[in-house]
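Please produce the structure of this protein holding FE2/S2 (inorganic) cluster.
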Amino acid sequence: MINTSALQDTQVVAPEQEATAEQCLCKVLSTYKGNESELIPILQEVQKEFGYVPAFAINKIAKFLRLPEATVFGVTTFYAQFKLVPTGRNIVKVCRGTACYVRGGTRILQEVESQLGIKPGETTPDFEYSVETVACIGACALSPAMVINDHVHGRLTPQKVKAILDTGRSNGPKNE
Ligand code: FES
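Below is the modeled complex.
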């Protein structure tokens, strides 16, 4: 038995929502055969479906693949792509690499924190945004830079950050 206290979902889920989530998971699992090698694709699909890998899913996936729960948990925590808690619909990744740092990256992060009211690793209460920091996003020529979902924003200033997030809040940056 693994210690799943770190997996407690931050949202209180009503019984009917829980039943829907279980149905949703069963639907995902029904497209697989139950082979060990399907673990990563299943985790990817579960994350796509829920936005993260819920604690109850780890238990069900382990049973489905006849693997120890600790193995499924271990794989989920090993890969950075998998989240164990709900994240925002929009992921803001602020670069803290050297090129961005020397060109004012710290001020960019401060502006993001100030605009959204959260720190790296946190999610806004409405689950609209999560903030992360990354070492380098491969856009050093555009530093300081950040990525919102898959869209790179470069040559940032605090004013540009505010404008981008303001636009995102009114239009939804996810589909920009
Ligand atoms: S250091 Fe920021 S994009 Fe490379």
